[in-house]
User: Fold these one by one.
Assistant:
Number 1:
Amino acid sequence: MSSLFEPLLVTVLLVNMFVLGASRLRSVIGASAVQGVCLGILAVTAHGELSFEVIGIALAAVAIKAVVIPRLLYKAMRDVAIVRDVEPLIGLIPSLVIGALGTVFAVVFSGTLPFAGVHEGSLVLPSSFATVLTGCIVLTTRRKAITQVVGYLILENGIFILGLSLLDAMPFLVEAGVLLDLVVGIFVMAIILNHVSREFASTDAAELAELKE
Amino acid sequence: MLLALVLLPIAMGAVALVVPSARVRAWLVPIGAVLHAALTVAVVIWPPPPMFDRWLALGPLGRLIVPILSGQFLVCAFYVPAYLAARPERPTRVFCACLLALSGTMSLVAVSHHLGLMWVGIETSTLASAPLIYFYRTPRSLEAVWKYLLIGSVGIAFALYGSFFLASSALHGGHESSLLFEDLVRNAPHLSKPWLHAAFVILLVGYGTKIGLAPMHTWKPDVYGEAPAVVGAVLAGGVATCALTALMRFVQICNAAGDGEFARSLLIVFGLLSIGVAAAFMIRQRDYKRMLAYSSVEHMGIIVFGLGVGGLATYGALLHILNNSFGKGVLFMTTGNLHRGYGSRLTADVSGALHRFPASAALFLAGFFAITGSPPFGLFLSELAIVRGAFAAGNYVGAVLFLALLATVFIGMGAVVIRVVQGPRAADVKREREPLLTILPAACCLALVLVLGIYVPPWLDALLRDAAAFVEMQP
Amino acid sequence: MTGCFIALGVLVVSACAALAFGRGGRAASAIAACGAVAAAALALPDAIAVLAGDVPAEVTILWASPIDELRFGLDPMSAFFVVPLVVLGAICAIYGAFYLDDQRARRHLGFPAFFYNLAIAAMLVVLLARDAIGFVIAWEIMTLASYFLVTFDHAQSEVRRAGWVYLIASHLGVAAVLSMFLLLGSHGFAFTDLAASGRADGGAVTVAGILGLVGFGVKAGLVPLHVWLPEAHAAAPSHVSALMSGVLIKLGLYGILRTTTFVGDAVPWGPVLLSVGTIGALVGIALALYQRDIKKALAYSSVENIGIAAIGLGVGFWATSAGEPTLATLGFCGGLFHIWNHTIMKGLMFLGAGSVLHGSGTRDLEQMGGLLKRMPRTGALVILGTVAIAGLPPLNGFASEWLIYLGLARGGSAADSSVGLPLLFAVAAVATVGVMAVLCFVRLAGIALLGSPRGDGAAHAHESGRGMVLPMTVLAAFAIAMPFVAPLLVDALTPLLVELGVEAPSSVAAHDALVDLAYVGIALWSGIIVVYLVVRRLARRRRESETWGCGYVAPNPRMQYSGASFAEGMHRLLPGVLRAKINVPYRTELFPPPVDLRANVEDPFTRAAYEPVLDRLARRFGQLRWVQRGLLHIYILYVVLAVVVTVAIVSLRDFWGGP
Amino acid sequence: MTLETILATLGKVVVIVAVPPFLLGVIARTKAWFAGRVGPPLLQPYYDLFKLLAKGTVVSRTTTWVFVAGPAVALVAAFFAAAVVPIGGGRALWAFEGDFIVLAYVLGLARYFTMAAALDTGSSFEGMGAAREATFACIAEPAFIMGLLAIARATGSLSLSGFLGPSIVHVWSVASASLVLVAAGLLLVLLAENSRIPVDDPNTHLELTMVHEVMVLDHGGPLFGVVLYGASVKLYVFAALLVRIAIPIAEPAWLAWLAFLGGLVVVAIAIGVIESAMARLRLPYVPALLLSACLFCALALVLLAR
């Protein structure tokens, strides 16, 4: 089972690159769903024995990250009737380059940290840190509010990866709490997004800049 | 008993949602606050045993922070009925519920001794405060909420990430990783140093966003500028204090791990940076509510700088948390009155408030002198302790920079406050009626800060010393 | 000491009572005035007892942390400053009660009464405090209370601006003083501990001394730091400016004297105070010459007199370090007496200006004239005040300058040339200041009181009530009596001189000089009275007619010399930077339209130094505004960068074994 | 108090009271002699005084008691100054340490009340005179004090009778150059203070050009008499100072008195000569003249303090 570990982390990294490169909003949301699925499988494979607890977490993760949230975002996308594609502030190629740099930095940084225990020298930390950085890049460079929500989602995925490596230490309750908070967070953001689209007739970041010094 | 501390306000919030009449619902908030305060007093005098195998416990830090939170909430709660009465047309159902829920989540953060639980507490407080900020339903407040949520969530995500780093620092330090503070502190010397350093940095930035330290403070001016005054008071006094409690727990872990020096240098840098940024944006500020936000950033900077200096300054920082939360209460509530009276937040439109709203304007001016650390008020003593600590620790550059920036803040803020309070008396201006309930809470806050400036009661002093010793725990 | 504590209690209680009965107006002022007088009656005996050689008392009160303990004491140095504080405080309280009386209907008189008594109480605590924290707390309460007094009628914009400048200056002053205490406070905050850590040599002690000089110099009004003083005194109600000018700025000098006891001779106090005093005196009187507002002119004259007092103290310190006790006694007695004299004279002058303002409704010199005929009692007292403040012989102004002159002259003629010359030129400087003071105060008295009224306010001026004239008469009596009482007080100062570091203070020289001066006073007074009566008798057969205008039949008041033209001669001789910026648009048309002359009489230091610097600083801060541009992305970028950069720095430092 | 000292003091008082107007007479006679006129009799000032004291006076409607106090205080101050300045080779009537400072400030008191009396009338001319007098005094006073201070420093004593007494003879021999400078400076101060030609024209009729005369324009009859007498005593004071510096003979009493009185007359004649030889300086140049007096005395001070 643990043999599946490394390839899944690599797929997560690939999905990161895809998200940074994709120009259409629909494909970005699809990619985040795929990443959710990978995380679900990862949750199962990360631990030897298949206790009831681990399966529960995995199923919950897949359900939320791959099904509930993407549908929510698709509905929001339809209601707001926005232009379908993603208008990045700095263009796709530069964001890809920064993404790559981020991944390199993640690898270098995790090199400095000793990694004891069962995942000796594994890709967990670099991939987690890289996903977090990708989420941040999406958050800071995409003009649309909905893409920012997706960016936040990818950021949460990155953190979830590191959470998995601690699964045996972290009790089930906290894991569930984290997932629950993620859902509520996204849910509130979606509500606010509807209000924003009704008030400003577009979720473009330019309108949302009235409060300034 | 501790769980009651958390669940009581949330229950009251649920009741507030259900109650039909607006007047009763408005009065539910102060009643909830009184009950919560009574419970707090009971909890502090007869410390209950920890619950849920030490997830909820009342350590020395908790015994100081919980009374501050409930006292501050109590004062703000009594402002709410009069505040809502002045706005009959606004739906207050969600407002009262979220306000009470916020108090509950804040108490959760203060009493939780588990990293993850504390994170959940802070996350829910963010979500609970979002609708409060959106109370005015204007496009500007909508934009403020959106920014608050986005930046808050990114910050909280990093806080979670940092917690995982801390857990894995225990895991990779050769011990079983647990997120309970007692365990973390007990085997702190064995935590692996690089993981701990990375964890502390990410946690500092994560919870720093909730505290409002520079450069993560950018949401504060927008949120405090648009949110209702009483929400601003609760956010500045309550939520920021919870985030500070979380930060203090991690400083304690660093101290216990013998890495105090590393943590302190980071805190000093972020502290001075915050005071500097606040001072820079205070000069010629056009909106007196945004000015309060920068004042909040400045005071968070002062507290973090105090924690960074350590020794006597930690005692000063803790006392400053207490003084600041009540001092902020005075300023926010009086600006609320002035904003409602003049209908505008810009200093250009508001001048000579002393003629129209003598009570609020006088309290606003006294609050200004209190918050900028003029002696008769408590903030002077805490800032004096911090500077004294800095001089004793030989950190002359930091101390001189600290005093210079405080002087700049005084000048920047004073220009705005003096302009608002004093001014020509137009012929038709007459003294307007100010409901007692909008004045009394601010006056009580000011009285408390004034008393703390002259005489710190021994029991409070004991609380402060225990908390300071607790944070400064050496390996 | 117990008298002082009871006085404090009385002051605070009467202040709160005045606030409570504020609505009644007259009741509030009356309560406050009684409180101030009672406090004077209680505190004065204590102070005089300590001055007369009683053993100084010391009280330590244990307090909650973080203050830990508060020490109070009354030693000769504090007692010396308590006397003018309580005396002038009581007199001005009585005057203030009547002065603000006609605003009873419009304003809530509880507040000025409350802050007035609070200010006196705070000043008393400042003088009694024996530890740094109690001192700084009382000092700031004094600043806040006096700030609220200065901005009493804050409806006018220049009053607000004056209050604001005063607040900033005092705040920066307190910051400097606090840093000094912290630098010296390594052993503890009691004054004895500060002195102990002050003896250890090293740069820190000198820096602490300079910080103390600057911090207290702001409050004392030493020249480059005096910018708040003229505006604050012009803005405040007259009895408040009398109190501030008479006592508040003296606490600045008290602070400097305390700093000298802490820091010892790590700072060369003699030359420093001498030069600062000389510059202060010259610049102060030069700026007082062409002021149009009489209260501003009086404020600048306070700057000058503080300069002269500083010169006296400078001579004292210089002589102590040079080891000449008689000279030190002369200098110190001169400087200290000048503080008392200035309290009396300046109090009288500000109360006089208040009475003139009350009567003629204006402070502008060019609107006044002929007030002596319409306000005979106030006029006579103001003329006596101007003679005293100009430092002319029979009155007290000259008594203290006379000792300073002797100190300087003796020092100058005895010492070798490297030290002697500066002292001799200091004598010349003080002489110049004296004669310019004569010009300045003849201008004030002449233009305001004599001649014919220039404005209709002055034409219908009415004499002030007994309540305002009586306090002024008391002060005038002090001014007249002081030169004759001075010889007796000299040996009362010896314990104070010992505290200032003079080993064996021999007050013989000072005593003899003052006795000579007393004889001169008697000769002059008797001569003037006799000759005046004779001359009046000689000129009894007189006929009234118009003033001789060289045959011009219809003279009108505008033809008289105005304040500006009177000072214009000397004003042109002043160095460029001190002159007022007068701009007259030069019209070349054949029939030029009417043109108005605008003189910017703003303080040259503010205009040339402080304002440009502060403006540039504010603009520099303004440029930082783009950080908060409103774009959410940028804000999130800040958070992300904060994480990435800090993590990078930390890990790099750890990786390469940083400190 | 032996009989002989009483006689000496009486003699000094008589000199102080009687001699001053005579100096005015000498000046007038010298100017007349220069102009080829016979000139008024030497005792003319006395006749004027008695005439004026007997006349009635006209007083302006705007004046107050200050108008009368002006001349009175001026006279008292002049007499006090005369009492402090050493007379006829011996000591002054009254000598104490630092009396030259009191002398300067008492003259300041006189200046204060004269100017106040001028402003009291409310006439533009008197205001102009007062303003000019104040400005010139601001520069003359430091010169006066520095001059006396230089001699005080040289002789080591701080009293007028002390340093203008016999000890000045030694200074003449040691530092005669600086003493000459001081004498020149004090001469200029004399001319400025007593409204003599280079600074002010005493008997012009054009009010716009006057300084001292215009201040007493409105004083008539006995008031003008007192003013005149005060001015003459003030002239005597400055002349006596100059004489005691220039002619330090003290030994045989009669010779000292003769030298002193002769010196006074010589100074009066010198003033008359200067007034005849020069015209009045334009007003902006007067400060320059007085500044040179300051420089003389300052230079003397520096030389002596070396």
Note: Helices of chain A lie at 5-21, 25-45, 52-80, 92-111, 124-141, 145-165, 172-200.
Number 2:
Amino acid sequence: MKTRREFHKLAVATAAGLVAPAVLGSRAFAQDKPIRVGASVSLTGPLASTKNGLIGYELWRDDVNAAGGLLGRKVELVIYDDQSSAANVPAIYSKLVDVDACDVLFSPYGANLSAPVMPFIKQRNLFMIGMFGLAGNDVAKHDKFFHSGPWGPNSGRDWARGFFDLAKAQGVKKIAIINADLEFSKNAAKGGAEVAKEYGMEIVFNQSYPPNTTDFSAIIRNINAGDPEAIFIASYPADSTAIIRGVKEIGISDKVKLFGGAMIGPQYGALLSSLGPELNGLVNSHTFVPEPTMQTPAIKGFFDRYTPIAVKQGVDPLGYYIPPFYYVAGQLAAAAIIGSKSVDPAKMAAFLHANTVDTIAGKIAFNEIGDWKDRRVLMVQLRGIKGNDLEQFRNPGHQVILDPPSLKTGELAAPYNKARTS
Amino acid sequence: MRKNSILFLAGIVIILALGFLLPWTIRNPFYFFVGYVVLQYVTIATGWNILGGYAGYINFGAAGFFGAGVYLAAFLYTTLGLPLPLCILSAAVLGAILGVLMGYLTLRIQGVYFAIATLGLVIVLETIVHNISALGGASGMAVYGPRPPGWSPGPSQYNFTVMLMIAVASVALARFVEISWIGRGLRAVRASEDAAECSGVPTLRLKLLACALSGAVLAAAGSPYPFYTSYVEPVTAFSLIIGLNAIAMPLIGGTKSWAGPVLGALLLASVQQIATVTISSELNILFVGLVLIAFVAFAPGGLADLFSRKQGRAKP
Amino acid sequence: MLSIDILLNAVVTGILLGSVYASLALGLGITFGILHIPNIAHPTLVIAGAFFVYTFGQWGFDPIFAALIGLAPFYILGVALYIFYSRVFERRGGANVLQSLTLFFGLSLVIEILLALSFGSELKSVSVSYIGSSLKLGLLTIPYRLLIPALLGPVMIAAVWLYLSRTNSGTAIRAVAHEERALSIAGLNPASVKQHAFGIATATAVVAGAALIMIGPVEPFAGRFQIGRVFAIVVLAGMGSIPGSLAIAIIIGVAEALVASYLNPSWAPGVAFAILLLGLAFRPQGLFGAAR
Amino acid sequence: MNDIVLSMKAVEKAFGAFRALGPVDLDLRPGERLGIIGPNGSGKTTLINCITGVYRPDKGSVHFEGRDISHIEAHKRARLGISRSFQIPRPFAGMTVLENLLVPLDYCHVDGSKEERARAVLTSVGLAGRISHPSESLSQLELRKLELARALVGNPKVLIADEAMAGLSGEEIDEVLSILFALNRSGVAVIMIEHIMHAVMRFSERIVCFETGRLIASGTSAEIAENPLVQKVYFGE
């Protein structure tokens, strides 16, 4: 029984290690009482490409503090790395709430990582801004949860509806759907299939494929065999590349009018520059593009500051997809705190439910479960891309907004084969 | 031997009593979230060691058994509404069946093939889960756990106590295996399979038994997980980090006795939990990898061995 | 949907992919198949090779040329790995499987993280003129992206096989695992023969890495998805049978392509392991190896 | 029919195209001391493996006390009373000397206290002073003794000593021989496989010689020493 004593020592050391941060935290808290905003960010793991959102948080914090803080209190970010694993999320949020005493919470990235916190915030009645989780609150229906992302109501089904609206306008009758076997893609494909049925389209092909598939020739041949007029693709960056290459290699029918939809990857600088002109003609979802209908001094100012930091950190230098909405999350929290003059979750939530907030991404109003009242997911067509220079994407005309109609900056170029080569 | 057993039993009683009392004395739920994870790894390391440590059969697929437990419990609870203890029990039975199946397919040949086959178990099971819509596939499955009973102040505390009971049961099982004829036979298998067989040890049956027990404990370790995260999806349920920790923890603690994996898990899981809320980066996994290499290379007996050697030297 | 061109193309794609799998497995065929060292870090070394090729690609080198440059440094890396491995275990009089598996497991983690730290965890790919176009032969459409790596595989395999079977130092490698004593009687140092073999095995990783990154983008953790395949190939080929491994790799490639075409691509990852498990259960000595 | 304890009838074993053994017929009387000689690769070890159950013979059968055991597993044969020591000692590393003996005692049914039995056997082979030492710390001779002690602790009826004296000095060989003689006096049949010719000649009542998998000669020590076939095998033309 030699080890028993060692056990004891270890247990003590471990407990001390866990307690120490809490003690430090509460002392800092007592001195100047900043408002604490807590979040987990996927700094590592498969979702590490979303970590550029953190720059959005930090720019917001700096702006707020430069303007004197909120209600006269400084804002302090408490950020942990969830390593892209849902298993780490419960402990992290308990730490944020129970040890770090955060006043405001931002959710982890996406629905998979956010799902574990939903019962927790509902049960503890906490205020949270959701980060990019599709339909994140549709089950819990927590009244103090607000999306920073533009998915809109019924997002599980409807967020990519724009693609199907465009297809319907083109008279598409037969559609093919493929998706990666991952949460976001799978839900996109499931919702897409429902919308297609609603519009009376025939789904001639509907398959999912495993992550890390590198060869799509078989799938593309099978799609061609089904003879669709539109192809809805919900993919992740690696497969987005492989699919676009595969289409170039295998070829696709001239009947196909729309190609794309929910591909992750063509929003990011890395893929835009590596594929370059191969992306021409693609119709894909986005959250922000520098087109005249969206560009405002506020958001331009954001990117002017974002880009140098991103370059220094080695993350996506464009950052159109995620970072602005991380800044928006901060703005929403700030509006709620200032508007309700408190950090009381119920008051903050009441304010956001009752008021429209002006952010760098435009005016936002929420429904009862915190979705944006109006969906504002963009369907953009990539056009006129020459070479692999990333800077061209900062100019209008390369990511033409087709949907929603209120932001439209151009008409669909179809069929895909023609748009691809022109 | 008897005196040790009484001490062990007393330890169990004290730890279980603490498991029921602490939730009422420590108000901060955070420690129960962290404690749950640490205890989950104590169970995983203990379960892995029954086969890996005692019999010397390395299982890279701990995450497969764990994930199977996670999904079975989630499925039984959400669709059939089975009570938690039955979910845990069913998961253990499934783990045992999987263990026997794996063992039956590969144990008649050298251990290295068993190890390779277990690598595949994770991928095969993950592929299956992806393709079963009743399990939610890649979109995962929301699980709203049972309301905690009166003896526990909240869900995180309840999960903690449940996990503690599983961990204690697993350690007790591992200790029983270790000090009984099963353990002696397994150690003989580990040292020399032929010699063991020729000494009358039914090596195949013993290994299958170890596979079953190990699988059962690993799957049981996963069964409360759906209630801890309220949500299961294949990537985390079959996460590599589980397979990694399952090997690293016993190896660091020492594989010869039940105390090794417990020690290794308490240490490594605590360090990881602290790292998650302090330094946090890829360095975390890098650290585990380096520690693993260092222990294999320089201290194959693990911490337990280092301690006993040091104490042995101190004695003149 | 069951048209002849889909079937034909699926089979051809499968053969091409299988050929690439064979080059991934070649190094393991030497370390595990011949030397009996369970180097589960091999797929990760392949990924490291892919990143090497990627780095040179950034400077304008063709992937195949970059792979040739990489042979020497990877050979040295392999020798260093073997020296570390033998230092660790020979002090204890031979390695036990558990410990060497764990050592290589830890090693692969370390390599992965080092790659992630130095290249980031995003996908990296090479751009060459022939990527994106394809060869059309009647009903067949074969992307060069697949064709060229698939031709690279058999060339390398043939070279290694000829080396092992026709040269003295190659024969020494094949002998070292069984006849260590005989080898030292013949005046050869078994340790240096093993170092050499490990070096060659690791050098094949850079060529396999080039093949992999030509087919599609690669990220630091991509090696994990290959572990099953490469072990399935080496084990089912009958440990150390190099022509056998090419045949098994093609069988696995075709099986995966057919499953993807006719069943559902989402079942494809399980194919290699299902074949491996069945193989281990019913013919543990491998399909191309003699009974032991 | 109790004058034959172990009998092999037309046993054959091949590995691929290589026929390692047989066909071989061989009987063993209870309490007999049988020596098996033959050059390396002559099939001696394959023969033992067929008797102990490590291999299943391709053809032919093995009978023990009148019962066909060709298809039962090695550990069951051990429990029936066929015991062996290994050419290269295989102690259960990580266990003490005493524990090494407790393994067979756990699985073979022996009356009385296991620990007392183990201590008695260890004393009889001269390892009494090493009972609680780890088995890795033993000397070569002690390992040989441990190997024998582990083989005989379960009260076997047949003990197969596979080169139990290889690498030992003259005095050490005598020590091992005396252990085997003592064991044989208690009624255990002993099969000795050995290259050390003077030892096997001294020990065996009957010697058989193997060459390329076949039994080529059988007889007393003196007969074998005179046998031209055996001489040819050992001394060439």
Note: The mean pLDDT of chain D is 87.
